[in-house]
TrEMBL record:
Keyword terms of this UniProt record: Cell outer membrane, Membrane, Signal
RagB/SusD domain ranges (all copies): 308-603
Recorded family membership: Belongs to the SusD family.
Domain SusD-like N-terminal: 27-205
InterPro entries: SusD-like_N, SusD_RagB_dom, TPR-like_helical_dom_sf
Protein name, per record: RagB/SusD family nutrient uptake outer membrane protein
CC annotations in GO: cell outer membrane
Bilayer-crossing regions: none
Subcellular location(s) of the protein: Cell outer membrane
Domain of life per record: Bacteria
Length: 603
């Protein structure tokens, strides 16, 4: 049960400099209803100002609330043909297609990369900062410092996702007004990729240095859900790693020529990996209140929110509807449970993702020493495989279930299963796999947003992976790289890298591949792989190949007296990726409104 006091509105707010009008607003938790709020009332005291800031928190995207997550735009998940990811994977993308935002499937889940939605949120942050400073006499100094740094973090967070999807954007730090600003102030040009990155990075550096925020909040803290120093430093370490990566830290970006440097640095900055490594190391060495949570099977529950590993999340409250609740458990997991239809089956791991999981001895299935048997592919796999993946013959038991089910995805003519692999267009998996990671074990899937598990943006495991990657790229596979990775592997009961590889010293290239695989497995279905494929500059190779599933059938189908045969089969689904798709287009509506905004290449 939630014990937080952040008051999040599911409402639309029209911000004007003369005041704030709140319409069609459904309150959440303990806010007082306000139908019309003037400046004098809005900024008269800390409680009233909190109402405004809390509404900004309410605009954080609940990425649980979409049947078409960012993972559907990768090689890890097989989504349905009726979602935007299916069109995108056909190469159907442009400034007027889906208004230039191909990943924006559901409003409260996908608008983190929608130009108009992001700038509305940025304007709210700018307004809050301006009004707090203008009315400073109404607030204590500690309140002003703390809340302004929260708003600065939120603004940096909003800028980050737009920057990752489109490149350099106009950096605006004050609320604009058509009545007082001239056209040169209103119609801003795009800042460069580097200028946008430097603004976000410097803002986060300042927030961390100010130390006005807490390092971490735990469950039960009144301010749990607000920005923290941990969130600021984790975001800083991530954007530095993103910027240092091959797609952008280059003089020849994959999108083509970049004379305005909107989507690359325009040269190679050799110190960026070292900078990212130092930032992530600072988190690991100075923020001791974070530690790896011991069991990922209970990580995503309402009772374990704000556990030792959670750094930054978006709150949800079950059975509340709107953008506050979550319907994540409706979209994924086995379609049929104990013979009854429960979920849409939208989150179905591909064979490529399944093959990325190690064997229990820590070796990849391609290693002859691993013990992998293609005709018994689900035996002796690592713990994360059993924690995350529902495979043919897997036991399936959630806390809300009265008994354990066994999920069969094989083609069985004698004992047919409703979850049998489907090569058509029904909800049943096309890959023969389902997932169970991040499914709330305590909530029964049902229509409506009944789930209350928070969406976790950052957790400590990602910081460890970010550090390992940046340190390996900057200095090679130092002992610190091994240490960071081994902490994650050991939670999955995997032997240390040194043990698994028999004391072999890995080269930088070998370690790079190991780190990339660890990221894929550890962070699967957390909407991370899309950004990795983009920043590593491998999307044009990975996403132009068909994905696969597992067809399991008996050699004697009439009576099942033969052997069960495992065949990896192509999905025959769209797999187009062209160079321009490394970035989204600028929406045509934005360019129509502001002729100073230049389009991304080949759109």
């Amino acid at each position: 049960m939630k014990t937080i006091n952040i008051k999040i509105f599911s409402c639309s707010v029209l911000l004007v400099l003369s005041g704030v009008s709140i319409t069609s607003c459904k309150k959440f938790l303990d806010n007082e209803p306000r139908n019309s709020v003037t400046d004098a009332v809005q900024w008269k005291d800390e409680s009233s100002a909190n109402t405004f800031l809390n509404d900004i928190y309410g605009q954080l995207n609940n990425l649980n609330n979409t049947p078409d997550p960012l993972d559907s735009f990768t090689d890890d998940n097989d989504g349905g043909p009726y979602w935007k990811s299916w069109r995108w994977k056909q190469g159907i993308i442009g400034p007027s297609v889906e208004d230039g935002t191909p990943q924006n499937n559901d409003g409260d889940a996908g608008s983190y990369q929608d130009w108009g939605s992001v700038y509305v949120r940025i304007r709210r942050c700018n307004t809050f900062i301006q009004k707090i400073n203008e009315n400073a006499a109404n607030f204590s100094e500690s309140y002003r410092k703390k809340r302004i740094d929260e708003a600065r973090f939120l603004r940096a967070f909003f800028y980050t996702y737009l920057w990752m999807h489109v490149g350099g954007v106009p950096v605006i730090t004050e609320p604009l007004d058509r009545n007082t600003n001239d056209p040169s102030q209103l119609y801003r040009s795009r800042n460069t990729f580097e200028e946008t990155f430097s603004f976000i990075d410097s803002e986060l550096e300042s927030i961390v240095s100010n130390k006005n925020l807490e390092v971490k909040y735990n469950g039960g803290n009144a301010d749990a859900g607000r920005a923290t120093l941990g969130a600021a430093l984790a975001l800083k370490g991530w954007i530095e790693l993103f910027a240092a990566s091959p797609a952008f830290n280059t003089s020849s970006p994959p999108m083509g020529g970049d004379p305005n440097k909107f989507y690359s640095f325009g040269n190679v900055k050799a110190d960026l990996y070292a900078k990212a490594a130092a930032t992530n190391k600072k988190f690991l060495t100075e923020f001791g209140s974070y530690s790896l949570y011991p069991d990922l099977t209970t990580f995503w529950t309402e009772g374990t929110e704000y556990n030792t590993e959670v750094i930054w999340d978006r709150q949800a409250v079950g059975n509340t509807g709107g953008s506050v609740g979550s319907d994540y458990i409706l979209f994924g997991g086995p379609v049929y449970i104990l013979g009854q239809y429960f979920t849409w089956g939208n989150y179905c791991p591909t064979q490529e993702l399944v093959d990325a999981f190690r064997m229990e001895n820590g070796l990849p299935i391609t290693d002859p020493r691993s013990g992998y048997d293609p005709q018994h592919p689900y035996l002796k796999r690592e713990k994360r495989f059993y924690d995350f993946i529902v495979y043919d013959g897997a036991p399936y038991k959630q806390n809300w279930m009265t008994t354990t089910d066994t999920v069969y995805t094989r083609i069985d003519k004698v004992h047919p299963s409703k979850n049998e692999i489907d090569f058509g267009s029904s909800d049943v998996s096309n890959t023969a796999y389902y997932f169970k990671k991040r499914l709330n074990p305590d909530r029964r899937p049902a229509g409506g947003r009944v789930d209350g598990v928070n969406y976790v943006y950052f957790r400590l495991a990602e910081v460890l992976l970010n550090y390992a990657e940046a340190e390996n790229e900057a200095n090679g596979p130092t002992p610190e790289v091994y240490t960071a990775l081994n902490k994650i592997r050991q939670r999955s009961n995997l032997p240390a890298i040194e043990t698994a590889y028999g004391g072999q010293s890995l080269s930088q290239l070998q370690m790079r591949e190991l780190i990339r695989n660890e990221r894929r497995v550890e962070l699967c279905f957390e909407n991370k792989r899309y950004y990795d494929l983009i920043r590593w500059r491998i999307a044009e190779d990975v996403l132009t190949k068909d994905r696969h599933g597992m067809k399991i059938s008996n050699t004697s189908p009439a009576d099942n007296r033969g052997a069960w045969k495992y065949e990896i089969v192509p999905l025959n689904h769209p797999h187009v990726f062209t160079a321009k798709m490394y970035l989204n287009p600028i929406p045509q509506s934005v360019i129509d409104q502001n002729p100073n905004i230049k389009q991304n290449p080949n759109y």
